[in-house]
Design a protein that fits this description.
single chain, about 375 residues, mainly alpha, Serine Threonine Protein Phosphatase 5, Tetratricopeptide repeat, about 80% helix, disordered N terminus
Length: about 375
């Protein structure tokens, strides 16, 4: 009897106690504790000397293997344990194995749908439980999106991003933008344009939820690729771009993200290309109101005025750039050009001489300086 009890204890120690779910959760806990040690070693690795580095790397490899083994065992002990598959997938993606993470996260996804269905989870009266399940749904779909994105399987990535579009609009916006890139690279211009337009709308929602730098920049990127989509389509069909729709895209981006100066400048550029001078003027006017001291806005506007035979008007913004940035050679060149077109020879010479003085200290301006020196010499101006 004594030996039978000892044998039973040995078996229990070998296979673990409790239900399959309890045994599986115990494996997850052990894996997470091991992963904590692994993370600390990864931090130590950053400042380790070469000899210590080799030792730490060997230990990290050993612990990584242990973590994966424990998580694999957790999934096998209880094939219905959502947490086991979900956490294993996260760990594998963190190790740069998205291809291995995907089947684990898909299993977690299927378990969740089987147990709780798909959102909305309004039938669950316990709000805390409902939020927990919704968060799990969001996180699994987000992980699948990131894995498929890493694998460049953009159609699949878009499916899972769309599942959480109301909770992570920035993810959905990014996914649609990437899908648009893919369609355009394959010459599917109509599809690309529609996808970029969807991205534009999605980035607006993302900004409304959280005006992060990525979302603010993203809406401008979407507008730009709508422009590029229409241009590519026009080139393929030997037609003209639909400038009005391009203008609308930039104006939509400006309304949603008024702090992004690039969108005003790009609208002015494309409106100039499309021959819509009124729209160019409006874009620069709004940009100057929003960014009164922005050198790029003032310079671009001034040069546009010069190009459109309005040199006298160009002097004011170009002078403001010189006053704000008196050590930048090209600013004097631009102002001198405006004075030249305006017929003010004396001020043209003064500004070009200043350009030469500062430009001689700037190697990137060498050829321009020599050209202006010859021009001034031809006018009898002594340096």
């Amino acid at each position: 009897m004594k030996y039978a009890v000892l044998f039973l204890l040995a078996v229990m120690l070998a296979v673990g106690c409790g239900t399959p779910r309890e045994q599986s959760n115990a494996k997850i806990k052990s894996a997470m504790l091991t992963y904590g040690e692994l993370s600390e070693l990864q931090q130590q690795l950053l400042n380790a000397d070469p000899a210590k580095k080799t030792q730490i790397e060997a230990r990290i490899d050993e612990l990584t293997s242990t973590v994966n083994k424990l998580m694999d065992e957790a999934t096998k002990l209880d094939p219905e344990n959502l947490d086991a598959f979900y956490n294993y997938g996260i760990l594998l993606r963190a190790q740069q194995y998205p291809n291995e993470a995907i089947p684990r996260q898909l299993t977690a996804y299927n378990i969740l749908v089987k147990q709780q269905g798909k959102p909305p989870y309004t039938a669950i009266s316990d709000m805390k439980m409902r939020d927990s399940i919704q968060n799990t749904w969001n996180t699994i779909n987000n992980e699948l999106y990131l894995c498929y994105k890493a694998m460049k399987k953009l159609d699949s990535a878009l499916i899972f991003a769309e599942n959480i579009r109301d909770y992570f609009p920035s993810r959905y916006a990014e996914a649609t933008l990437l899908a648009g890139f893919d369609a355009q690279s394959k010459g599917k211009f109509e599809e690309a344009i529609k996808t970029f337009e969807t991205a534009l709308q999605a980035y607006k929602k993302a900004i409304e939820r959280n005006a992060s730098p990525d979302a603010l920049q993203g809406i401008g990127t979407a507008a730009y690729y709508i422009q590029e989509g229409y241009k590519a389509k026009a080139k393929a069909t030997k037609g003209k771009p639909d400038y009005e729709k391009i203008y609308n895209a930039y104006e939509f981006a400006i309304a949603a993200a008024p702090t992004e100066v690039e969108n005003y400048l790009k609208l002015a550029d494309i409106a100039n290309e499309g021959g819509d001078k009124k729209r160019v003027e409006e874009a620069y006017k709004k940009a100057r109101e929003k960014f009164p001291k922005n050198a790029t806005v003032l310079t671009n506007y001034g040069l546009w005025l010069v190009d459109n035979n309005r040199a006298k008007e160009a002097i004011e913004p170009l002078r403001a750039v010189v006053d704000a940035n008196p050590r930048v050679p090209v600013n004097y060149f631009n102002l001198g050009s405006a004075y030249s077109k305006a017929g003010n020879k004396a001020e043209m010479i003064n500004n070009l001489k200043k350009f030469v003085e500062l430009g001689e200290k700037d190697p990137s301006q060498k050829s321009n300086v020599e050209a202006i020196k010859k021009e001034l010499a031809g006018m009898g101006v002594k340096m």
